[in-house]
Backbone:
């Protein structure tokens, strides 16, 4: 029997769900192997109470998110963290750079925080709170990686999110290294798996897939400084998607 | 081996002729660098290239290739065909010609790899001479010359190429597509002068004296820890290496989960997962141990089996490694005990 799958979103811009709808060549095949119970972006009904697989996009930024997340973890046999927000805190995590109350004041006016965001929390990725079975990082996700992960879920294979950095992928694409063009590129420390798509489209890596567990940050920092960039260039660059790692230490 | 003089102006004719029979691959410009790519016109061929981003191995052992397709439900192989496209790889420098001979030892040994063999059997090699740049050190290993492993080798002697012809097919193609002329003593003298200029142009001094002894004697040297501190563990060195042959194999299912592909991709001994086995034990858990393993294998392990080191001095890893770990530096560290 096909597993019942739900797709839901916490704090995010739904971009990864849009990516799912962009899988025009494969989506019918995917729908043939799963029982799609709920897709927040596309469903008009409600989330069912029973399901097997939960695909969650977005960061946890409120108590309500946390409650939902814990509830989903109780129900689902498999939880997939989809996208940068769910995996590293992503763009919502930028709020970690300033005082949270102040941030709400800047956006919504003074005294607004309680009204617009009751139970607000410092933005955090899913695995800060629950065990995540599979990870599809990136902003937005790469659909071929998503399909591979989904296949692993269906076969009961383990999560194989790459732990290595981006540089090898760039070499395979025969992209001229951005450091050789005098530009900073975060691929030096960023988790591989997207096929180094941005560099292949002539844009340096911005670290949306998070810092690779196997990265050598200290050596990368030395290399970046030796290449003439500022001493804090690496940390600053990584902040776009990775502040929650700093907050968590 | 026999020889012809081929005027440089006849090269486009030769390429056009070859293109009527083969897929012609050669060095072409890309973003200020060069890559081996299919030629759509003879004018794209850049025989003045310095090096290519990826080596020629890509055309025999692709970075990702489907070994077979299979059905999931009953495990039946539905396609395991090999690539028999007729190709000419035009414009390989001596280092890259030599690198293929080193790959052959691995892929065409007692149990030939059918995928590699099919591409190798169906590809002609046209080599071309070069001048060393600051990263080249092929002279350290004797891979600055090549006397086999090609069908035609073009040595630049000014207005003409001094063409060494190694195979019957190479001879037939030269006869068919270029006029050329026989060599004279003057041509051979020009070839010798050009060779002397080439040999004198190397600036990268790599002292390989007693390298196997040093590798064994300095197995516990702290140079490896120091190199490990620098290494980014990114595997860029392996990807660009013309002699790295390690690969990983995994299955990828189609979206309908009914059929799948068994895919072979390049691997790197610098990846942390490379020596990880079931139950999570990792034989080379540290970057230092992986860098050391790389040099032991290339400069000693392979040598002890095949009597050549597994490096052709092309300098690609020197360009690719942002941590500046490369054979000239590692060999220097072994000689001096210092990581510079």
Residues:
């Amino acid at each position: 029997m096909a597993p019942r799958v739900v797709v839901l979103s916490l704090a995010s811009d739904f971009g990864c769900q849009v990516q799912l709808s962009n899988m025009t060549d494969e989506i019918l095949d995917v729908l043939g192997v799963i029982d799609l119970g709920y897709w927040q972006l596309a469903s008009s009904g409600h989330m069912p109470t029973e399901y097997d697989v939960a695909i969650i996009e977005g960061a946890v930024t409120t108590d309500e998110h946390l409650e939902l997340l814990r509830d989903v973890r109780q129900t689902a046999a498999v939880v997939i963290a989809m996208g940068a927000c769910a995996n590293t805190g992503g763009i919502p995590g930028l709020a970690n750079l300033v005082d949270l109350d102040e941030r709400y004041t800047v956006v919504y006016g003074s005294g607004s925080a309680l009204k617009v965001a009751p139970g607000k929390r410092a933005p955090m990725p899913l695995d800060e709170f629950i065990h995540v079975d599979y990870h599809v990082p990136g902003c937005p996700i790469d659909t071929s990686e998503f399909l591979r992960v989904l296949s692993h879920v269906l076969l009961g294979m383990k999560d194989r999110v790459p732990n290595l950095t981006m540089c090898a992928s760039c070499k395979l694409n025969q992209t001229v290294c951005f450091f050789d063009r005098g530009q900073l590129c975060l691929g030096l420390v960023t988790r591989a798996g997207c096929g180094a798509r941005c560099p292949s489209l002539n844009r340096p890596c911005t670290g949306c897939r998070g810092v690779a567990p196997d990265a050598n940050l200290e050596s990368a920092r030395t290399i970046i400084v030796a290449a003439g960039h500022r001493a804090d260039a690496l940390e600053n660059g990584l902040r776009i998607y990775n502040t929650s790692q700093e907050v968590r230490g | 081996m026999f020889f012809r003089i081929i005027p440089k102006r006849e090269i486009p004719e030769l390429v056009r002729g070859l293109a009527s029979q083969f897929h012609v691959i050669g060095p072409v410009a890309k973003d200020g660098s060069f890559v081996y790519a299919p030629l759509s016109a003879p004018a794209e061929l850049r025989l003045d290239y310095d090096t290519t981003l990826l080596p020629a191995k890509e055309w025999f052992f692709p970075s990702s290739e489907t070994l077979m397709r299979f059905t999931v439900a009953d495990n039946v192989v539905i396609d395991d065909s090999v690539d028999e496209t007729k190709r000419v790889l035009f414009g390989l420098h001596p280092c890259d010609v030599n690198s293929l001979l080193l790959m052959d030892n691995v892929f065409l040994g007692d149990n030939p790899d059918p995928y590699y063999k099919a591409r190798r059997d169906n590809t002609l090699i046209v080599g071309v001479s070069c001048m060393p740049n600051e990263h080249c050190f092929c002279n350290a290993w004797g891979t600055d010359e090549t006397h086999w492993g090609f069908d035609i080798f073009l040595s630049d002697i000014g207005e003409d190429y001094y063409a060494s012809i190694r195979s019957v097919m190479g001879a037939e193609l030269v006869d068919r597509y270029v006029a050329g002329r026989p060599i004279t003593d003057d041509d051979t003298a020009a070839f010798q002068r050009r060779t002397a200029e080439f040999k004198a142009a190397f600036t990268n001094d790599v002292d390989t004296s007693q390298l196997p002894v040093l590798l064994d004697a300095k197995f516990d040297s702290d140079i490896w820890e120091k190199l490990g501190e620098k290494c980014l563990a990114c595997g860029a060195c392996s990807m660009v290496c013309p002699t790295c042959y390690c690969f990983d194999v995994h299955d990828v299912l189609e979206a309908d989960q009914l059929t799948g592909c068994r895919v072979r991709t390049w691997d790197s001994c610098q990846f942390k997962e490379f020596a990880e086995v079931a139950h999570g034990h990792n034989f080379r858990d540290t970057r230092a141990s992986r860098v050391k393993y790389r040099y032991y294998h290339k400069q000693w392990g392979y040598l002890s089996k095949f009597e050549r080191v597994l490096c052709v001095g092309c300098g690609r890893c020197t360009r690719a490694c942002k941590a500046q770990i490369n054979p000239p530096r590692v060999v220097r560290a072994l000689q001096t005990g210092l990581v510079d």
